[in-house]
Amino acid sequence: MDRAQLLLLGLPLFLFVTDLFSLFTPPPPKPPSHHHHHHHRQPHTPKPPINSESLDIPLPKTSAVGGIGYGSTVNINFCASCSYRGTAVTMKKMLETQFPGIDVILDNYPPPLPKRLLSKLVPVFQFGVIGIIMAGEQIFPMIGIMTPPPWYYSLRANRFGSIASAWLLGNVMQSFLQSSGAFEVYCNGELVFSKLKEGRFPGEIELRDLVSKTLVNSRVTDNLEWSGISSVAGQ
Description:
Elements: H1 3-24, H2 64-67, E1 73-78, H3 85-98, E2 103-108, H4 113-142, H5 150-157, H6 159-178, E3 183-187, E4 190-194, H7 195-198, H8 204-234
Parallel strand pairs: 1-2
Antiparallel strand pairs: 1-3, 3-4
Helix pairs in contact: 1-4, 4-6
């Protein structure tokens, strides 16, 4: 066998082994986020009292909805291979505008493990078909088949068409196996919307109301727990 045939046979095996290593290797831990607060002392200058009666312009009021965003996290896990990133980015900007200070994290929602394993075999299928078409007369005797089957000559007759068809079919199969169709939204670890359950995307107003309700409930729960701890400590 010449170098071209060895390359066609060795490349699929190399890709398959590297995919297996990358599949079973745990991802590296995320670096902890360090928030450095630099406090610059400024000379304290007494401010003159403001006479509210002399002001004709009303003072701006802080938004009650936006105030509850600090310290909260929203996770949007979506199917990256389904072209859902644009929708996820739009929802992220909307939530950051409606709830100043909220942390919105975008992440991929992977498909189940069997589909991921099958998707790793698709490149092997593609390069295997190409290798058989290009060097089938040498490959079949190596595996004990002295006379190539009839379908090999059919593929060989239309070599470039067969290679293009195998490549396009493999890409379609890999795109299907790598897609999960998910758009899951979590607020402080609580699932607030699931495309897998609803079968649709959330509206911006709908998602804003769901996150707002979850944030209010979490704040009420935290206040109740804190009041209970304070009452026990006071006894």
